[in-house]
UniProtKB/TrEMBL annotation:
Record organism: Ladona fulva (Scarce chaser dragonfly)
Superkingdom of the organism of origin: Eukaryota
JmjC domain residues: 94-352
Alphabetical list of PROSITE patterns matching this protein: JMJC
Stated name of the protein: JmjC domain-containing protein
Residue ranges crossing the lipid bilayer per the database entry: none
PANTHER family: BIFUNCTIONAL PEPTIDASE AND (3S)-LYSYL HYDROXYLASE JMJD7 (PTHR12461:SF99), HYPOXIA-INDUCIBLE FACTOR 1 ALPHA INHIBITOR-RELATED (PTHR12461)
Residue segments, region Disordered: 190-213
Length: 368
């Protein structure tokens, strides 16, 4: 109960060194082991041109294109990113994927952490598996969960802000959209932004050309072509979405899967704050390169930078803002425990209401 007394009650994050170093996963989950034991497994992967899934781009809140591929092919691409130029991949579905999609891995890490479950008085509501490219970035946001974040391989870099920084954290409410790739035979794909609820062929999408191309690897250049007739394909053949990798990955099949229109984390608040149900309030500042000319109040905010290494655990309390980057091929498992509607929630609800009513930060959405 020391953990609950010293860290949970005062709502303070802490890194617990070597807390999961004993996990079999820390010793076993190499590329070789995962490829040999789970290489044929079909998995859901987020694809973006810039590494930013669930982030602001060109006046939209943009979610990633969701692909299906074998785990072995995903690992092959991590080892040789130029085999899929212009695209950054990240396994980051925040839907409790350890209970179903990644259930085969649970025996190497467990369904929960016993001391955390004891402290919170209940098992986690969800556990998630994360793995991806070093260029994949989680934009700054906050979650309505007590987060126990366990790094298995590599490291994660967090930029944190305490909940009390809310007056200085700017929000914008933007229409929701998703990325959709467009094939360019013999070259990197380009991406367009497709607003949710619109026909992809009606001319309302916005094509992206900057930042979508990477240097080609002449020894392993990937060609892209459309695979028709797949039951997972939900777009027309003319859209040219990524569906097949040729060359070294000639047997690989990547099937486009319908992008879930359920908005995660804070974006769920849009369902209650906007009648169109398609606008999302999201933090509009990059803590690594803050635009203080546009958002001068952010200069008052306090950044806490934390690196979490393999075998370590970060306790990230509910309502703490966080921005996340990682080493290449980093693997992590996190457990979400439901937050309590206690004094911490009441404090945040009061501050949020005060800011909205006073006009000091009208963009911040109501609490969860």
């Amino acid at each position: 109960m020391e953990f609950y007394r010293d860290w949970v009650c005062p709502n303070i994050p802490v890194v617990i060194k070597n807390a999961v170093k004993h996990w079999p996963a820390v010793k076993k989950w190499s590329y070789k082991y995962l490829r040999e034991n789970f290489g044929e497994k079909l998995v859901q992967v987020a694809a973006t041109p810039n590494g930013y899934a669930d982030a602001i781009a060109d006046g939209f809140f943009v979610m990633p294109e969701e692909l299906r591929m074998t785990f072995g092919d995903f690992i092959n691409i991590l080892e040789n990113p130029n085999s899929l130029p212009g695209t950054i991949l990240y396994i980051q579905s925040q839907n409790g994927n350890m209970s179903e999609e990644w259930a085969d891995l649970v025996e190497d890490c467990g369904k929960d952490l016993g001391w955390a479950t004891e402290a919170f008085g209940e098992p986690p509501s969800a556990a998630n598996f994360w793995m991806g490219d070093h260029r994949a970035v989680t934009s700054m946001h906050r979650d309505p969960f007590e987060n126990i974040y366990c790094v298995v391989r590599g490291h994660k870099d967090f930029i944190l802000h305490p909940p009390i920084d809310l007056p200085w954290i700017p929000y914008e409410t933007l229409p929701a959209a998703r990325y959709e790739s467009i094939k360019n035979p013999g070259a990197s794909p380009t991406y367009k932004i497709v607003p949710l609820g619109t026909d992809q062929n009606n001319g309302n999408s916005k094509e992206l050309t900057e930042g979508c191309k990477t240097e080609k690897d002449d020894s392993s250049e990937a060609c892209m072509r459309k695979e028709c007739g797949n039951s997972h394909n939900t777009t027309s053949a003319e859209s040219g979405s990524i569906s097949k990798i040729v060359d070294d990955l000639s047997e690989s099949k990547i099937c486009e899967e319908t992008v879930a229109e359920t908005l995660k984390s804070e974006s769920m608040e849009a369902l209650f704050t906007d009648s169109s149900k398609s606008n999302v309030p999201w933090i509009c500042i990059d803590p690594e390169k803050p635009d203080l000319n546009s958002y001068p109040l952010y200069a008052n905010a306090t950044q806490v930078k934390v690196r979490v290494h393999a075998g370590d655990v970060l306790f990230l309390p509910a309502h703490w803002f966080h921005h996340v980057k990682q080493s290449h091929g980093c693997i992590a498992v996190n457990y979400w425990y439901d937050m309590k509607y206690d004094h911490r929630y009441a404090n945040q609800a009061f501050i949020t209401a005060l800011l909205r009513k006073s006009g000091l930060n009208t963009g911040c959405p109501p609490l969860f």
